[in-house]
Amino acid sequence: MEKITEASSAYNDLEQFSTRALLEGINAQDQLVPIAISNIANELEIFIDTCFERMRQGGRLIYIGAGTSGRLGIVDASECPPTFGVAHGRVIGLIAGGDQAIRKAVEFAEDDINQGWKDILAHHPTPLDTIVGIAASGTTPYVLGAVKSANEAGLLTAGLSCNPESPLSLLAQHALTPVVGPEFVTGSTRMKSGTAQKLVLNMISTSLMIKLGHVKGNRMVDMQLSNDKLVDRGAKMVAAELNIKKEIAQEWLLKYGSVRKAIAAYQNQNHNEHLDPNGVGITNGNIFGFPYTEQEADIVLVPVPWDATASYGKGTSNGPQAILNASTQLDFYHPELERAYETKIYMSPVSSEWKAINDQLCEAGVQYIAQIESTGEEDARRLYASTLQEINEAHHALRLNLKERCSSLLKKGKIPCVIGGEHSTPLGLLQALDAFHSEFGMLQIDAHADLRDAFKA
Questions:
Q1: Which residues neighbour 164 within 8 Å (Cβ) at sequence distance 6 or greater?
Q2: b/e sequence 241-257, b meaning 16+ C-beta within 10 Å
Q3: Rounded Cα–Cα distance for residues 353 and 47 (Å)
Q4: Model pTM?
């Protein structure tokens, strides 16, 4: 292995340089770092996408390193909770020698090949977790031992180093190797190598947090309000999103504790205004505080406001109100789902096609029932055979429309969830959807009590 990080500097007699010459030399070398990182863009993309699939299921990101490399991992991990609102422990930074090594070097700590994995074991790793070993040289025993054991335990691993074909790059499942060249001061990997590591870690954590839904537009909607500056920034975000005065926005922000929750709560306060004039559909997918568009969401709730067992004519009006009545339960479960699984949810509007089909069904049904009451069921069946055909066709159209809607979502990479059952749409919808569910195999939630298990599955 060629240790480029230890190679002799392109500069000599540094002690004779003027201050300006030193600065220009360091700066000239630093400009090579972004180029080196651009050369590993493909490897970074593959690793981040692989890590994301695990993190969306509850996995964690764990950085481990020694010296400068370990400190850089700790810095990146420690900034994730305040910046993105994730729980402490979602992104973890470990350093050889423990926390005391953050400020003062611990002699020979990096030479213990077994201690890295022991430090990871203290955090009870699971196969969903991802380990990123950080070592500029790619030879640090503390890091190599941790990555080797992580591989054996079935965890995802990456190695961030600056030497090609280093032991770390060969050992890790994903080699991230920005080759920045010899340091300005020979062997001082706190310089270009450290800068490259910092930039790569920024890219990893920021990309993952965006993909996990902690940024909306370009705003940190889940940032912690840990000082006056951040409260002011958050209030401006809320004001801009809702088109309200900053003073009002700040009141909502302080009441609900985050930009996301403040926006959702404000939008939800007058949810009845989001019903269409006929009381037939929800026109705003954020009505229950789900702060995502359909394009952003992982899971799309597809409400079906039709009651199969109620008298014909009631389904259209009952549906939206029943869905609105479920808002308390849906609001209760969504924060837990978001925290546990980083699930992004969107409540789909009730489509105009559903309204038209449902109106057709209700009109035909009302006529049929009136005839039964007037002349009896036998005459009604004889006289209204065509009406019954309309009912059957409407049933079929409902099912096909729902199938097309769910199929379209699947093609877009979304998980469609048909909401049915007495707690989310009128009593009897579960029976109405049984045939659909068995025929098309889509995920169906039949009551709010099943939400957690359905999403977990």
A1: 1, 2, 4, 177, 179
A2: beeeeeeebbebbeebe
A3: 42
A4: 0.61
Residue 403, pLDDT score? 72
CB 365 within 8 A of CB 313: yes
Structure tokens at 28: 């000239």
Nearest to 445 by CA among 313, 333, 281: 333
The pLDDT of residue 422 is: 36
Distance CA 297, CA 204 (A): 21
Name 119's Cβ contacts closer than 8 Å, sequence gap at least 6.
Answer: 64, 94, 98, 146
State the virtual CA torsion across 323, 273, 221, 238 in degrees, nearest 10: -160
Q: Are 358 and 340 in contact (CB under 8 A)?
A: no
Between CA 357 and CA 432 the distance in angstroms is: 15
DSSP secondary structure letter of residue 403: H
Nearest to 235 by CA among 248, 250, 219: 250
- Cβ neighbourhood burial of 439 (10 Å; 0-12, 13-18, 19+): exposed
Catalytic residue set? 79, 110
- Angstrom CA distances, 128 to 57, 61, 121, 450, stand at 7, 9, 14, 24
- State how far the Cα of 181 lies from the Cα of 7, in Å rounded to an integer: 8
- Give average pLDDT by consecutive 10-residue segment, the chain, 457 residues: 88 96 96 96 96 89 96 96 87 94 86 95 93 96 97 97 95 97 95 96 96 86 87 90 88 85 71 34 38 68 50 36 38 41 60 59 64 72 66 66 74 67 33 38 37 37
Please calculate the CA angle 353-356-358 and round it to the nearest 5 degrees.
105
Token pair listed for 422: 């007495």
